[in-house]
Amino acid sequence: MSPEEIEAIAQRPTYCKTDGEAVTLSRAERDALVAMARRYAWLRDATDSQRLAAERWMACYGPDRLDAAIDAKIKEMK
Predict the structure, then answer these.
(1) How would you write 41-64 as a 3-class SS string?
(2) What's the pLDDT score for residue 78?
(3) Which end of the chain is more exposed for a tag (fewer CB within 10 A), N or C?
(4) Cα–Cα–Cα angle for 72, 1, 46, nearest 5°?
């Protein structure tokens, strides 16, 4: 998900519901945001060596392959 796509979601108008305001997301948007949140949580809770490995992976292969590597690690933990 690009920064522009995230910003578009952030700027999306809300609508009223009985329990407060809401914003509509597509299933693809929801899945992408959940994946980003899971990766962030993994990086936040990772050990120093895991973080260092992620930084090296990012430098060598770029963000898309880093996402795939973190996703694989999350699956290993389940």
Answers:
(1) HHHHHCCHHHHHHHHHHHHHHCHH
(2) 67
(3) C
(4) 40
Phi, psi of 49 (to 5 degrees): -70, -35
Residues 63, 59, 66, 54, Cα dihedral to 10°: -140
The CB density around residue 30, as the number of other CB atoms within 10 Å, is 10
> What are the residue ranges spanned by the domains of the chain?
3-77
Please tell me whether the overall predicted TM-score, pTM, comes out greater than 0.85 for this model.
no
Instruction: Indicate whether 26 pLDDT > 90.
Output: yes
- The whole-angstrom separation of Cα 52 and Cα 34 is 23
